[in-house]
């Protein structure tokens, strides 16, 4: 794989210091602010993923507002969680089923994954695919989850949708049990005006009140701190009147949809989250956690997919 493509402007060798424009869609391996790969498009289009956590942090099709949300207060520091984008939670979600695991959401989001492939057809169709791998030899001694595994992640950036695919294979000799989630932060115009359809009738755990078997009635609206784990395998649509668009979030291989917005007090309590940033974000996550972990016998593979489409 070429480690570096040209930046958007390149100095021509042996000529006067004139700058030549290269084709408008180009990608580069970047260290800004963490190592990863970024692609820029002709107007304001932007795709970005960090090696740390194989974490997508930008999907903005050309001519649109960003679809993936990233906090201006995120730390962007090696070994620290990145606030925004699509954290990959693995092999546990939150503090785990019994609430005693650390770091939150598992060790995979704090590790540098190996970038194994980049497929660039940006000039032809605006598509860009980045693949990463992770396994137990890269994650070292993990006393809380000491099992052999192979994980791979593919992020497919296209002008129409962002496709995310996490595969985990049990390469050991005993059964493994793990949680996982694609913890997608979406950018919305005003979270208090959005409505989310597709969850009607689904039972949910309300992590704010502690109620365990609530049932969603009608569309979900966000009017306070919201942290819910819905038993739901289907698609949801986020209607966003402030930005005048809908986001369709579809998925497969996932038993639960998690919806999270910290609202005023929790936002203020998080050091890597701006006090007012909760207005413009909403997490809609594809998960298998709590009472629905993934169980793999030796040699088995599980695939979790999420797709965000701009409508
Ligand atoms: O602050 P973190 O570790 O990134 O987690 C953010 C949130 O992630 C959500 O998925 C959880 O349901 C919330 O409980 C949690 O607060």
TrEMBL record:
- Broad class of enzyme this protein falls into: isomerase
Entry keyword set: Isomerase
A Pfam family this chain is assigned to: Aldose_epim
Gene3D superfamilies, per this entry?
2.70.98.10
> Any idea of its EC number?
5.1.3.15
- What Gene Ontology terms for biological process does this UniProt record contain? carbohydrate metabolic process
Q: Which residues does UniProt mark as catalytic?
A: 183, 285
InterPro entries given in the database record: Aldose_1/G6P_1-epimerase, G6P_1-epimerase, Gal_mutarotase_sf_dom, GH-type_carb-bd
Q: Which GO terms describe its molecular function?
A: carbohydrate binding; glucose-6-phosphate 1-epimerase activity
Q: Which reaction does it catalyse?
A: alpha-D-glucose 6-phosphate = beta-D-glucose 6-phosphate
Q: Which family does it belong to?
A: Belongs to the glucose-6-phosphate 1-epimerase family.
This chain's protein is named: Putative glucose-6-phosphate 1-epimerase
């Amino acid at each position: 794989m070429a480690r570096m493509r040209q930046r958007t402007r390149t100095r021509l060798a042996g000529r006067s210091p004139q700058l030549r424009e290269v084709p408008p869609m180009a990608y580069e391996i970047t260290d800004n602010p963490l190592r990863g790969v970024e692609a820029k498009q002709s107007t304001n289009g932007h795709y970005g993923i960090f090696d740390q956590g194989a974490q997508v942090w930008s999907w903005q099709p050309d001519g649109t507002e960003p679809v993936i949300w990233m906090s201006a207060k995120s730390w962007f520091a090696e070994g620290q969680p990145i606030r925004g984008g699509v954290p990959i939670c693995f092999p546990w979600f939150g503090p785990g089923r019994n609430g005693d695991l650390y770091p939150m959401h598992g060790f995979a989001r704090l590790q540098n994954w190996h970038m194994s492939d980049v497929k660039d057809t940006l000039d032809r169709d605006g598509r860009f695919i980045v693949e990463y791998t992770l396994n137990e030899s890269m994650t070292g001694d993990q006393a809380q989850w000491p099992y052999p595994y192979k994980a791979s992640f593919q992020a497919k950036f296209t002008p129409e949708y962002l496709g995310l695919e996490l595969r985990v294979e049990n390469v050991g000799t005993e059964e493994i049990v793990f949680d996982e989630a694609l913890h997608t932060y979406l950018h919305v115009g005003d979270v208090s005006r959005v409505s989310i359809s597709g969850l009607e009738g689904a039972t949910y755990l309300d992590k704010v009140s502690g109620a365990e078997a609530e049932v969603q009635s009608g569309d979900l609206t966000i009017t306070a701190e919201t942290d819910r784990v819905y038993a739901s395998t289907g698609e949801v649509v986020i209607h966003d009147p402030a930005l005048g668009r809908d986001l369709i979030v579809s998925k497969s291989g996932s038993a639960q949809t998690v919806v999270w917005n910290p609202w005023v007090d929790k936002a203020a309590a998080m050091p890597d989250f701006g006090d007012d940033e909760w207005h413009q974000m909403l997490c809609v996550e594809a998960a298998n956690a709590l009472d629905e972990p993934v169980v793999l016998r030796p040699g088995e593979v599980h695939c979790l997919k999420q797709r965000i489409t701009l409508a």
